[in-house]
Amino acid sequence: MPHLFSPLTIKDITLRNRIGVSPMCQYSAEDGMPNDWHYVHLGSRAVGGAGLVIVEATAVEPRGRISPEDLGIYTDKHIEPFKRITSFLKEHGAVPGIQLAHAGRKASTYSPWKEKEQSTAGVPNDQGGWDVVGPSEIPFSEGYKEPKELSIDEIKEIQENFRLATIRAREAGFEWMEFHGAHGYLAHSFYSPISNKRTDEYGGSFENRIRFFLETVRIMRKEWPENLPFTVRISSTDWVDDGWTIEDSIELAKRLKEEGVDLVDCSSGGNLPKAPIPVGAGYQNLFAEKIREQAGIPTAAVGLITQAMQADEIIRNEKADLVLLARELLRDPYWPLRAAETVHQKGALDIPVQYERGW
Ligand SMILES: Cc1cc2nc3c(=O)[nH]c(=O)nc-3n(C[C@H](O)[C@H](O)[C@H](O)COP(=O)(O)O)c2cc1C
């Protein structure tokens, strides 16, 4: 029976345990460049014992950043500073992952702490913002910019930028790829009927709405080494009757498996400003469980997993193959080291020699 501290092997990569750092925007970059903040933030979580550290949503083109302070990997200049981070993560036993993203109609917004002082979510173009794009001309919410509907040629250009970013991510030393297909960003806005009202081959039917996702994954998978894990994050449901559903996600996961996707990270929501989300302990776990069972693909569970026993139970009962933690790991980068003691696996994780006297 696997448990929280069992290694997980996917392709040629083995995670030392089933704990991953969920991608978390730090809103701390200039022109997409990682800096010392990212190095220390991500590095600490590798030292703390996570098996996998996934770098925040990293834009494949400047227009695809959520805020002007997001990370990006849209030029070759970005490769070197990421390499510094991946080397450190590997040195400390964590597998370095990256989430490649395009924010679509939810781009050009203020970082959370700047938004508090503003009257709109969207950053005006004369203050460092930019025009945003999406499947249709439907803004996410009041205060957000109205997206320009992408032409077919423009869709292809974005897919080419995903391809180039995938090559750069590999050159930067990443060993785990996550395509960001969740939270109302570009890929999700294509597959959800709420934001996609197109009448061409990228809109309308289920087949057409998932086309952007599948094509982009196919393009990226070709550039990503076969022996390294290629994963995706999806929003498993929009949480409304006329939106994307868990049944849609199961079908999508089956298609993704055929495209060579190795694991589905099962998040939810983000495409509607006021969805009735029943937030609570492990509220998205059921999606990871259903997709794993019904699409026959490994999954990651995420969302209000905060307790060691809770995380261990998910793995032991084979509800998911991996747990991803976000906010709990902001509070405590050493959570995995503490969790090992709680779940009766003391000794499963090496304490960094520099810290041994503290444990
Ligand atoms: C500060 C912060 C930044 C986040 N940035 C991202 C991101 O870049 N990409 C993403 O897919 N999710 C992002 N999320 C969502 C988390 O990855 C995670 O799915 C969510 O917080 C639920 O997990 P938790 O309850 O353990 O925090 C972010 C969450 C937080 C708190």
Automatic annotation (TrEMBL):
Pfam families: Oxidored_FMN. This is NADH:flavin oxidoreductase/NADH oxidase. Coiled coil: none annotated. Residues 109-128 are annotated as: Disordered. Its cofactor is FMN. Keywords: Flavoprotein, FMN, NADP, Oxidoreductase. Residues 4-343 form the NADH:flavin oxidoreductase/NADH oxidase N-terminal domain. It comes from the Bacteria. Transmembrane segments: none annotated.
